[in-house]
Amino acid sequence: MFRLARWLAVIACFAFLVSACGGQRSLDPAATAKYVGDVVFQKTGFAPVDIRCPSGIPATAGGRLRCHFTGPEGPYTAYLLIVKAQGPRAAFQLETQPSNWPPPALAASRK
Asked: How is the beta sheet containing 64-71 ordered, strand by strand?
């Protein structure tokens, strides 16, 4: 009986480790919002304070997301394309514009 319980415990631990390693990571919405704010400030000198980015976005190259903030003339949208991902961290291509404009066509740069 003890031997069976020990094997079940080993199998349960192994299954947990495999599922934890194989799970897909999501972007951190707070870190993404900070990135958007930093880029907007660097490019324009305007520091948005109400950036809202979605949660649950898989950190996968080619993924797209939109963050929203209030710009100097009203609502703005930041369009992000994930160009590289490693764990929950990502590198983005970013374009911002007033929210009432049509979305831009973001494409990963080719080298």
From this structure: 64-71, 74-86, 89-98
The CATH code of the domain at 25-98 is 3.10.450
CB-based contact 33:68 (threshold 8 Å): no
Q: Which two tokens stand for residue 64?
A: 């797209």
Every domain of the chain and the residues it spans: 25-98
Distance between CA atoms of 57 and 53, rounded to whole angstroms? 10
Count of other CB atoms within 10 angstroms of residue 68: 17
Q: What is the pLDDT of residues 38-82, one digit of tens each?
A: 999 999 999 999 999 999 999 999 999 999 999 989 999 999 999
Helix, strand, or coil (residue 35): helix
Query: To the nearest 10°, the Cα dihedral for 38, 86, 26, 33?
Result: 0
Task: Say what the pTM is.
Answer: 0.73
In this structure, the chain runs to a length of 111
Name the CA radius of gyration of the chain, rounded: 20
